[in-house]
Amino acid sequence: MNGSSASPGSAGIAESAGSDGSAGHTGPSGSPGSSGSSGSSGLGLYALKPWYARKLSGVRGALARREVSPDALTVAGVVCAAGAAAALAWLPDLLRPQSPTLVMTLLTTLTVTVLLAARLAFANLDGALARDTDRTTRRGALLNELGDRAADLVMLAGFLPLAPLWLVATAALAATLPSWVSLAGAAAGAGRLNGGPVGKTERCVLVIVAAATGWWTPILVAVAAGSVLTAVTRGVRLWRELGGKAPAARGELGIR
Length: 256
Description:
about 0% strand; 8 helices; mainly alpha; about 260 residues; two-stranded parallel ribbon
């Protein structure tokens, strides 16, 4: 670990809001790129991120005073996602001998909800803490981005004992598409797009609904279809934003 969670101007790559809830951008060379109108805003529940970041400002201050590593928060988010997956997959079986069905469902749903809420909080805090404490590095940005993707995949792995493998794999693959589209846009110099209609927060909400209802197949279909829709929506917005010929930067643009 390098004790950081985002590089200067690249916190948007990690989808982590700063103290004001805004996200930064990174151009093709790793330097701050164009912010664009789309980089600091998003559709769906992402619109609540500035409010959420303000609510967490006290927590950020406490973490900063204790010199907590932003990298540790990134890892903690992945651990929480893994815990939610385990609760979704196995907690009902562990509780079945002792608990009636309704109690079992409520306990499972509550556990999954708390762990995924913590996962989202850590995803918000890591990059913001790195910026607040001047511990931003490019390695931290890489770790943060990988942590977000790992958390999504681990979370959806909780469906493996509950639904067909092909459907879980399809939903997991689709869930990565919006971020790859946004990263491609950021590499081309556009603003880093975030949010829905089915982004990271909405996927967590859908998993909570699955825990509460047992609708494994419909929820996975919704995750897959919604993620593809989100990727297409971001792609269309980026295509419009990147219209026109851009000057080459250090021979990078145009290389495939």
